[in-house]
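Appendix B. Extra example for self-study. Work through it before the problem class; the solution is given directly after the inputs so you can check yourself.
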Amino acid sequence: MAKTLATLPPAQLAPLADAYHAAMAVKRRWTVGGLVLLVVLTLLSAWAGQVDLVKFWAGLPRFASYFHDIVPRLRFETFAADMAEWFWNFDGWLALLWDTLLVAYVGTLAGAMAGFVLCFLASANLTKSTPIRFIARRSLEFCRTFPEIVFALMFVYAFGFGPMPGVLAIAIHTAGALGKQFSEVVENVDMHPIEGLTASGANYVESIRFGVVPQVLSNFVSYSLLRFEINVRGATVLGFVGAGGIGKELISSIRQFYYADVSAILVIIIGTVFLIDWLTEMLRHRLLGIVGDTR
Amino acid sequence: MRRRHPEVFRAPVVERCLSLAIVVGGTALAIYTLWRFGFSPTKFIDGLDKLGIVVVLMMPPDPGSQLWHYVSALAETLAIAFLGTLGGALLALPISILAAKNVVANRILHFASRRFLDTIRGVDTLIWALIWINVVGLGPFAGILAIMTSDFGSFGKLFSEAIEASDRKPVDGVRSAGGSELHSFRFGILPQVMPVLMSQVLYYFESNTRSATIIGIVGAGGIGLYLANEIAQAEWQRVAFIILMILVTVSVIDWVSSRLRLAMIGRRAGAGA
Amino acid sequence: MIKRRSILASTAGVLLAVPFAANAQDWKAKYPEIVMAVVPAENAGGVVDRFGPFVKYLEKELGTKVTLRVANDYTAVIEGQKNRQIHIGFYGPGSYARANAVSGGNTVAFGTTQNQDGSIGYYSVVYVKADSPYKSLDDLKGKKLGLVDVESTSGYKAPVFFMNREGKAPDKFFSVAQVTGSHENAVLAMTQGTVDAATNWWNSDTDSNLTRMLNKGMLKKADGTPMKYEDFRIVWKSPLLAGSPFAYLNDMPDDLKKAIADAFYNAHKKDKAAFDKLSDGKDRAFVPVGHKDYLEFIELNKYLEELRRKKG
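Solution. Structure tokens for the complete assembly:
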């Protein structure tokens, strides 16, 4: 290899090289330490989680055969008829899917509104009172970290089976998640318009309404759309605990070994998620005007 | 001032009509949904009342005789979350490279791998749990595989986007010093994206702890099964205790994860969603 | 719940351990452990208590390790036996028919219980609370029904089948027809007010899931006082259903199958205490049955599938 770069004279090079090696040694020690810790945790978890590689290997053919079982026979000659047979309940499932989407929609809407109200109270730049901020933040955190499905189970107990428990569970979780994301956006906002408004006599609500909201609205809507997509997936699963919709039908088909129905419903669910993913991404690009911010 | 800059004070008619239409349409849909779901204020109040009674019955949280079971089940849940996240991240890395436009130029490969990842992501973790239970039987192993699978899809997408968003200059630098394709990735892209990737993995670990508690309900191990049973039997004090355990665990993980992420990226970027 | 954890742990241990030296019967080398699983008629802790002594009896009779695996839903047992991870399964007649079909005929019934009065079989009933205004199934129109599990015979298949024949298809007749996961959960949902009525299995006024729950003290009123049998009312009962069968894997060696079957048929003589624990003393013995005794349930499953298709 020809010398393409000039090198320093040894006297200057030596201390720099030493410093570099010392820094690398420290970094290496951290990395090795971290890796050792990782390995130890992995082994502990494997023991606690009853990981059995023998069983996994023996069971892999079943994984493949499961997918083989649920995919129906689609022949080229009778393609239309085979598809009609596979999706025999297409309109029924679509109706259930519509229910699920409605659950996700109202849940996201209610959660976004609640999060909107709370986020200002949780923002350090708008709420000077530390106790209020603390309470607002802890409440949002509680709503966010409490498993959604546990809310759903408790709401089923309180409100009975049906879609409402699912809506409420999603709404609360969304309020927590969006509330936090909203407050982070608000904390990064330009304070000048707010100062200007306060200086000309606006009160707390007015300064927020005219100073903050215009700056953050498109961000808020963008986060809400993303949350809607996540909530559609969540709503399909809540059907499992009695919130109705297409999740209930999927679980029912899995449990009764109606294999072709399982794949048909999965295809519908995945297709819907694709569609919503694509639609919300389009909307969010228009709102944010930048490419790529997806989480 | 209003006369000079009317457009600042009054948005154009088309835009306002559109906003109005969206608001009206959205509200109408919401009202229709509530009607369709049989929502009524009286039922809602009754339910809240019942919920209030439940909250009172929950005090004080008390595991009764089940404390050791809950603790070991929680350990199982953490194990499921840990291995699932780790496995998913490790498996996702190779495919995220394929799915990144700037590393692999082949458009078809990029599109195919992206759609593949989307398909895996489209299936909820709970459904994956049911499928894996068929393969390896009931128990936490199925739970680990379920989380690994759904994380594989999510990480694949996130990692590939991080790679696509990385700066070309270090890559060019390595290339001009004579490095190969592999060198340019290892020394050009990887150091840039590694902090972001680790940050995402840590964030997901916390989120997966919550998912892991849930999949226990279908028998994929962990504390979810106990939780569902105690709710069915209306043992509210035990329910409250389990919930408290879960919240504390998630908080601890959240705190540890934030500290680690801070150390890696720095204040601003570390305060992730 | 303790037992379940240690049972699963010891299962892993045994499966990885080397099987012991060959005995007189050579099936023991191939089957160092026999796994038995039970559909969740009741919740997990109850299953372990109920079947524990019987499992020990089987171990003594077969001379090999027998493990009880607790499942949270019917499908897990059906799937487990299909995958040959479970050797002996206990089903309702309808879930047995499903298990047989799904396993290509490898899951075969061999025994069922005989009631004290010599009869074989049981009923599906619909309970309501005695203080509710519902006196018959018609009164429940538009109300909420709690079912058990989509594969439960008395908790789903029989009610759906017979109610459809009466012109009251559950998913149309009731405002909500929701599976609750187990017979116990269905009753609990009813006492808690989440549903207005619950399907359940029933042998007689002194032998049903309800009586077992009352004996365990599981049912309490809002103020904490225990409930009594009189606090419940039956508003619907099905015709007699075939007895719930135990089934083994047909491709096991004949001498193993015979050993298992004999152990069951002789249980009431050889270990009465363990046998009685299974049914709180309400059963007389295990009697032989075969697949042919459940052909009508194969038909039932087919009919229910067609019913489902007609709706769509």
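Self-check: The CA atoms of residues 136 and 235 of chain C lie 5 Å apart. If your reasoning did not lead you there, revisit section 3.
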